[in-house]
Automatic annotation (TrEMBL):
Pathway this chain belongs to: Metabolic intermediate biosynthesis; acetyl-CoA biosynthesis; acetyl-CoA from acetate: step 1/2
Residue numbers marked as site, Transition state stabilizer: H180, R241
Gene it is expressed from: ackA2
Protein name: Acetate kinase
Annotated PANTHER family: ACETATE KINASE, ACETATE KINASE-RELATED
Protein purpose: Catalyzes the formation of acetyl phosphate from acetate and ATP. Can also catalyze the reverse reaction.
Organism: Enterococcus mundtii
Cofactor note: Mg(2+). Can also accept Mn(2+).
Amino acid sequence: MKELIIAINSGSSSLKFQVYEFPEEKKIAKGLFERIGLASSMDLTYSLDGGKSSRSVKGETHEDAVKYLLDFLLEEKIVADLSEITGVGHRVAHGGEFFKGSCIVEDESLKKIKSLSHLAPLHNPINIMGIEAFKNNLPACPQVAVFDTSFHQTMPEENYLYPIPYKLYEEEGIRRFGFHGTSHQFVATEAAKSLGKKLEDLKIISCHLGNGGSICGIKNGQSVITSMGFTPLAGIMMGTRCGDIDPSIVTYLGRKKQMSFAEIEQMMNQDSGFKGVSGISSDARDIEEAFEQGDPKAVLAMNMFCGRVKQMIGAYAAELGGLDVLIFTAGIGENSPIIRQLSCEGLSLFGITVDEERNNTRQAIVSQENGRVAVMIVPTNEERMIVRETNQLISK
Ligand code: AMP
């Protein structure tokens, strides 16, 4: 009998899935339900053997999508019986300080995840809906929660606390959590594997540069510092997010322009970053195109973005006390030679080099032959990490 594990990533109007066969860890199906709750039907796009197909599906809720997905797996003969699904792993945005790793979702842990919703009000409630939909439709199948935050729970106190009154940590739980943990952990593991080294023996900086972006310093296989903070707004400049700015700008705008908290939040989350600086787009491809044509705002946005990545790399190399591997991943990190090159420019004092030919042709290792640090492109795959974690937990 087959053993299949499904990875689920539920968004406010979407549900993304990937189905893997174990023990081979072979991906056999993936798909995406979109426009959930926006009308009486939703759109499903899926791929079974590489080809892409789509259909319209009746239903309005995440639960309708899950029911349809299970029927679809039977209809497409991906499973002969639903008991072949041995586990479902769910991406969960926030595990707070409580979840130091992934967990099988029982009543108690579900309650705990719900109680952390104030930390990720746009995400945790939706992730919970996904878990509950599967619990209702596959009651005998273990559900596993894989948290975006848990990889960073190994950060030392001096790196996760903010220099504000300590009681705000004690009373309100204000601290750095960090996000993209599943991605940072996955690419670090894959990088060590492809170098034929033990993860525990490497000092690694992982740059997850997508529409959202974060950088993580990894030592002994553990996250010791990361650039996102209490929320995913902190750290490097992003597609529409400002990243780190002087916090007084918030109060200044409130006083000077009578902007409300909601307006300031909108400005920092949706109207800043590439989009805000360039006035062109939040999409790195558009910025690159305008940069190549010499558009001054695009040049500025590009220099600001790469400059901040570079500063973070330097700071994290200092934190790690050295560096063996520098990883670029996610949409920008994997696909933009110019951003990799500019972010590494001038870092030869840390042993960081970029070979132009290797970088432009997207080789796995883009550093120069004699470069001390292995600069690598490692495609991220959060779904694969989610099914791996799920498999580990259900096999115990
Ligand atoms: P993600 O959030 O990981 O899906 O990444 C999205 C970001 O990756 C967007 O800013 C895209 O513009 C960027 N991206 C995707 N493909 C490319 C490419 N070929 N060159 C530059 N940026 C890219």
